[in-house]
Amino acid sequence: MEVRPGRGGGLFVANPNPVVRLRHTLLTVRQEPTTVADAIAVREAMETLITADAARDRTSADIAALRKLLTRLKRSVTSTGRFMRANWALHERIAEISHNHLARAVYLSMTRCIADLSAHADPDEEESRPADYLNHRVEIHVELVEAIASGDLARTAATTERHRGLTSD
User: Fold this and answer.
1) CATH class entry, domain 35-120+131-164
2) Considering the entire predicted model, what is its pTM?
């Protein structure tokens, strides 16, 4: 709402800001048939921007929070469900560091969409993973957090590519 004083003034419906419009759009998309793969593709396309922002904008409090979430991730490797929740919490915290409100809103929406849609994923998929898969993912996340903490944009970009599986280990 917008209040305009004086003659011809009154209470008017204001144009929503871009973040509000984007959130409404994303809510509409969630009502459409979609897949986890679609949401992952969008989120991964934004990963480099979000992690670069985090490396550039991080504070000592952010770094401490990320390391605390890493500890939670490390402790969760005995349960895929707990691991995924810890993983999403870590990625949400990385995104929250960004000062780019639109990118953060899209990224967080995609992360939450993945979490919501994954709640109904096939449990047989877990059995097909190598035994050390979750430990390997923890190592990559440790590297990602340390790259962000260092503030080194090239290192963060390279680690983000590794996280996304674009480079070999």
Assistant:
1) mainly alpha
2) 0.76
